[in-house]
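Sequence and structure are kept together here, with a separate record for every protein. An example record follows, reproduced without changes.
>
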Amino acid sequence: MSSDLHQQAEVIFNEAIERPSSARGLYLDDVCRADTELRDEVESLIAHYETAEGMLNQSTTVSHAITTGPDDALNLSIASEGPGTLIGSFRILQVLQESDRGAIYLVQQDDPPQRLCLDIYTPTSRSDERSLRFQHLRDQIDALDHPGVVELVETGTANTGKGMQHFVVAEYVDGTPLLDSLHRTPRTRDEKIALLLEMCDIITHAHHRGIIHGDLRPGTVLVDTSGNLRLLDFAVARTIGLQRSIAGSSGMSEGIAASMFRSPESHEGPVDTRNDVFALGMLACLMLWGQLPWRCETDTLDSAKEAMLARAASAPVDSELGTDMDAVLLKAVALDPNRRYDSPTAFADDLLRARNGEPVDARNPDLMTDARALAARHPAMIATAIVAAILIMVCCFLLGTLTGGEAELSVPKNDASTTGG
């Protein structure tokens, strides 16, 4: 089985298990159609998942709930926990962020000794299906083998005095949010493109393993102390039914609405790789143009979609990137997913072509454009070819002249005596 087929099956599987068992068949009929190999692979993943669900429901299964200790006093109220407070086996060192979606804590775990991030979300209605999918997500991310992916240590549900609260425990990354990093350390255009290519590589790695990020935006991209990118919260928000995760969700940053990084079609339908491409394109616009193609005054999905549909995207009038690079960014954020790049790899390839002065897929260059681009890339080769062409033309002209002269000499002259009367 090809990796592309497995990737497609994983994406469909992740959508299928969000639906009630009774509705999955119709969904698979719609998305798989006559592709029996794809259908079989998806059904195999579902069968494996349901087997795992049965195992998780057995009483011998280790719980993924945070235990509150003998006093059973977790009973979280956001912003009330201070340094030294225990949440299960995690001792709070610092409150890193709070929002209406929950809170992020820097915590210390003693066994094994390590510092971690604990994200705990506001109470939600209990959903065994959703909780199981959350645990399955952890297992999927465990399979990601990329230094740009922040490692998940634990996921689950905390049964607190306030209700069921989903939580994520992840490695702590000593880093700076993307926009803050760009402000503190200005980068050249090529350095920014290098960061974008790094993002594309990380997202592609996840896509090949069937994981759509779904929440890519400035708040979920960190630059660590070594200057490398680290991406947070792969698929976390969608798994527990939120618009976005906690990270970077404390409000609009510098007038940039986080909702603008969600593609319009993802608001009401299944997602695929092109949703992440849209978010990558929006990040590229922000990094290379210094602004988004649209502006939104309020940070809601409806407002963002309305802003996008109000006018066509266009490059800033003062853009210095060139028409090819502008075209690449606009293709990445096309509102119609069928006109967008179908993968981060395709987007990255066109970014490289635009940077190197090569013809890009985002445009339909004519013959003259191709010729100019080729000449710009290989001036010596083009000069040699022109000289060779001129020499060939001269040789052909001389050969034609000589051949014509010989033909004229070979024609017999009429004898005047034979033409007379």
In short: The CA atoms of residues 251 and 299 lie 8 Å apart. The chain has three domains: 3-56, 86-171, 175-364. The beta strands are 86-87, 90-99, 102-110, 113-121, 152-160, 163-171, 175-177, 221-224, 229-231.
